[in-house]
Design brief:
By secondary structure, the chain is of the alpha/beta class. The chain has 9 helices and 20 strands. It has helices at 89-108, 125-137, 148-158, 203-218, 227-237, 261-285, 306-315, 329-342, 396-405; strands at residues 3-9, 13-22, 25-26, 30-33, 40-42, 45-47, 53-55, 66-67, 80-82, 85-87, 115-119, 143-147, 165-171, 176-183, 189-198, 243-250, 253-260, 295-299, 320-321, 385-386. Strand 11 (115-119), helix 2 (125-137) and strand 12 form a beta-alpha-beta unit. GO terms for molecular function: ATP binding; ATP-dependent protein folding chaperone.
Length: 410
C-alpha cells in the first residue's frame, strides 16, 4: 500500500510515523516503533568493530566509537570523531535518516513515496543545504526538509486546531525552541519572526534536577546505577499523578525516595519559567502581543508536565494545546506534510492582511517539492508498526568515507 514517511530527528531522540493512502486522501499517521516497542529511538550512532553503524545506545563502549549530540552540530566546520575518524555532523544525521527509511521500507516492502524530515526552525539555508547534500549522497532524493515548528502546527491542525497564527513551544530532551507560525497566502503554515532557542535546557535537565534531589536524600557518596533513567520514569509518572517513589537498588537492598509533583515542580520551576519568558519575548520581537495569537502549540516529551501549561497560561491569555504524546507531534505533522508533497490540495484563499513571510528563500525545486498542507481527517488510530533496530546497510559506511573528503561549501 502506498505510504509516506514523517521523520523527526532530534538531538536526543528520533521518531517516525507513516501515513497510508486511503482512496484520494491519506489516513492519520501511524507510529513506527523503532526500538524495542518504544516510539522513540535514541539519536545515537555506534561504530561496530566491522565498520557498520548501529543505531541506539551500545551495551558497552569506551566513548570513542559512539557519537551523540550531532544534530545540533550540523553547520559546524569541525567534524566529529567516530572511531578516530572525522565525520561531518550532517552525514551522521543523513545516516540516521537512511536507517529509518530502510527499516520502514523493509517492513512495508517498498520505499515511501515521499519523506518529510523536520529540523530546528532556526536553521538557515547553509545548514539545510549541507543536510540535503548528505541525504543525496545516500540516495535519499525524495526528502523534504521542513522546520519542526511547521510540522508541529500541521499535527495540531489535523487534530482540530483552527487558528491562523500560533506560537510553538518545543521542549526537547536537551534543547528548547520558541517560534511563531501562521497560514500564509498559499494556505499552509510557515514560520515568521525570529525563532529563538536554548541549546542547554531540556527534559534531561529536569531528570538531573530530580537526581540531585535523590542524591541529597540518600546522603553523600552514593551514586546509584540507573538513577537518571529512574528519574526520567518518575518525571513521566508525575505528569499524571501527584506523588510517586524513585525506586533504586543499592548494595544493602532496595530503597524508595518519595517525590511529590509539588516538590518536582519546585525543582524545575526556574528552568520552565526561562522557557516561557523566551516564548513571550519571541512573540513581542515579531511585533505581536500575546492576545493576537490563536493558541500556543506544544511539542516535545516534557511538554506534558503540568507546570508548563500552568506558566504558559499565566503568561499568554490564549489556549494552550498539547497532544496526548507530544514527543510524536513533530513526526506526525511531518507525515501529514509528506502526504501533501505527493497529493497537494487546492490552495486556500489568502487570509486578510496576511504579512509577507521572512522565512527565507525557497530551496531549489530539484531538491524537493514544497507541500500544501490542509487539515486532515482523524480516522481511528492503528497499532504502531514495530521494527527492531538493526545495523545500517553496509553501503552507508562508504558515505562516511565520501563525507570526510568532500567539499564543505554551501
Amino acid at each position: 500500500m502506498p505510504y509516506v514517511l514523517g521523520l523527526d530527528i532530534g538531538n536526543t531522540g528520533t521518531a517516525a510515523t507513516v501515513a497510508r493512502r486511503r482512496g484520494e486522501t491519506w489516513a492519520r499517521p501511524e507510529v513506527v516503533a523503532l526500538g524495542g516497542g518504544s516510539p522513540v529511538v535514541p539519536s545515537v550512532l555506534h561504530l561496530a568493530p566491522d565498520g557498520a553503524l548501529v543505531v541506539g545506545e551500545p551495551a558497552t563502549d569506551d566513548g570513542s566509537r559512539t557519537t551523540r549530540d550531532f544534530v545540533r552540530r550540523v553547520g559546524d566546520d569541525v567534524p566529529l570523531l567516530l572511531g578516530g575518524e572525522p565525520c561531518p555532523p550532517e552525514t551522521l544525521v543523513a545516516e540516521l535518516a537512511a536507517w529509518v527509511v530502510h527499516r520502514v521500507a523493509a517492513h512495508e516492502g517498498a520505499f515511501p513515496e515521499a519523506v518529510v524530515l523536520s529540523h530546528a526552525a532556526g536553521w538557515g539555508p547553509h545548514r539545510r543545504d549541507l543536510l540535503y547534500r548528505a541525504l543525496w549522497t545516500l540516495d535519499l532524493r525524495t526528502v523534504t526538509l521542513l522546520p519542526r515548528t511547521v510540522t508541529v502546527a500541521e499535527s495540531h491542525a489535523a487534530r482540530g486546531f483552527p487558528g491562523t497564527t500560533a506560537a510553538v513551544y518545543a521542549l526537547g530532551g536537551d534543547t528548547f525552541e520558541a517560534a511563531l507560525v501562521r497560514r500564509n497566502a498559499r494556505g499552509r503554515y510557515e514560520t515568521f519572526g525570529l525563532p529563538q532557542g536554548l541549546e542547554s535546557l531540556g527534559g534531561t535537565d529536569f531528570d538531573e534536577a530530580l537526581a540531585e534531589h535523590v542524591r541529597a536524600a540518600l546522603g553523600p557518596g552514593l551514586a546509584p546505577h540507573g538513577l537518571l533513567a529512574e528519574c526520567e520514569r518518575v518525571k513521566r509518572e508525575l505528569t499524571i499523578g501527584t506523588e510517586t517513589d524513585v525506586v533504586l537498588t543499592l548494595v544493602d537492598g532496595p530503597v524508595r525516595v518519595p517525590v511529590t509533583r509539588a516538590r518536582f515542580e519546585d525543582l524545575i520551576r526556574p528552568a520552565v519559567r526561562a522557557t516561557v519568558d523566551l516564548l513571550v519575548r519571541t512573540v513581542h520581537s515579531a511585533g505581536l502581543t500575546p492576545a493576537q495569537l490563536d493558541a500556543v502549540l506544544l511539542a516535545g516529551g516534557s511538554a506534558r508536565i503540568p507546570l508548563v501549561r500552568e506558566l504558559l497560561t499565566a503568561a499568554l491569555p490564549v489556549p494552550v494545546e498539547v497532544e496526548p504524546d507530544p514527543q510524536l507531534t513533530a513526526a506526525t505533522g511531518a507525515a501529514l506534510a509528506a502526504g501533501q508533497v505527493v497529493s497537494p490540495r487546492p490552495r486556500r484563499p489568502a487570509p486578510a492582511a496576511a504579512p509577507v513571510s521572512d522565512a527565507g528563500p525557497p530551496v531549489p525545486a530539484r531538491r524537493h517539492t514544497e507541500p500544501d498542507q490542509p487539515r486532515h481527517g482523524e480516522p481511528p488510530a492503528r497499532p504502531p508498526v514495530r521494527i527492531t533496530p538493526l545495523t545500517l546497510p553496509k553501503t552507508s559506511r562508504l558515505a562516511l568515507a565520501r563525507g570526510r573528503g568532500r567539499d564543505r561549501e554551501g
